[in-house]
Design brief:
The chain is an all-alpha fold and 399 residues long. The protein folds into three domains: 47 residues, no CATH class; 96 residues; 138 residues, no CATH class. It has 13 helices and no strands. Helix 6 packs antiparallel against helix 7 and helix 8 packs antiparallel against helix 10. The longest helix is centred in the N-terminal third of the chain and has 94 residues.
Amino acid sequence: MATDNLPKESPASDKDTSSSVLAAASKASESSKASTPASSAYKASSSKAKPKPSLLTPILVLLNLILIGVIAAGGYFGWKQWQSMQQTQTSQAQLQADKLANISNANQALKTELAAQQRQVENLLQQQQASGSDIQAKIDANHNQITQLAGRRPADWLLAEADFLVTMAGRKMWLEHDVRTAMLMLQNADSRLADLVDPSLIPLRAKLATDIQTLQNLNPVSVTSVALAIGAMVPQVDNLPLATLKLPDLVDAKQDDTLSADVSDWQANLAKVWHAIVDDFISINKRSEPVQPLMSAQQQWLAREQLKFALLNAQQAALKEQPELYSQNLQTALSTLIAHYDLEKPGVTTFSKSLQQLVDTDIVRKYPERLVSLQAIRDALEQRVAQPFVNQSASEAQP
């Protein structure tokens, strides 16, 4: 049977031994169930037949030790990793808690700030509503005043137009020295006031009349006309004849050639006869001054340019209303004309007369420092238009 064959098998490998032991145990259990004597016989035979020791046991022990070491090392490593994960999770949880705390604090601060801003907005809205009510009240009051002033608007416009005309008249007079235009503007302003048919404006019209009379008393000579006249004379200089040769006057050297009847004057009579005979052959004329040489081309050009230069300077002085410089340059031009030009020629004579007329022309003007009607018309305009608004503002300012 199988029990007899067990001691005969050789331990070739660990697998064969273990399999044979298991097979023998299974057969023994079956035989024990069949009969009791058989099982006792089997126990006796198995006790007698013991297997020989093999190399499987030390290997299995070594493998078990290695496995236990690996399991121990794995457990230690896993425990370390678990501790590290626990620490990481703890730190992350702490960070999350800190972040949540910061967010909660920030939210609380934001809520507080929003609440404060909301209160400020509510206060501003209340102030705006209050100021809007005040503005609406002022608008209504101004509307009522404008409605009341509507009937006086044409008169006020005429008064404002008169004020504008007087202001422009002052600018024309002081800035442009245009007296004629300034006078016309004052007269137009007076006509605007006359159209109002308001007796309260008679003092204002009286001041306008004073200003108009003041301008009428100014020198009526137009400096522009004077400047244009001088400018027209400048091109004529090139056509004026120069005094290229001027002989001084002859000295009267004639003597009395009448012979005396007195015998004692025979020597004088003889001298007279001698001079009469000599004068028929030789004539000697004496002049009061030495004869000047002829003018060169350069001197002629210089004489003309000097005259032109003096005229141009006089023209600029007339436009700038500088009477001293104007008169000085015209005198220089007149002196140059007398010194270098032929005064016996008709053209030079006419030019000299025109130049003398310009010298005698007075361009001096003394402008008034202010127009007495300007401030008066402004006061009247302010009293008519601006005073109701000033009164309204004063009434609103009172508690």
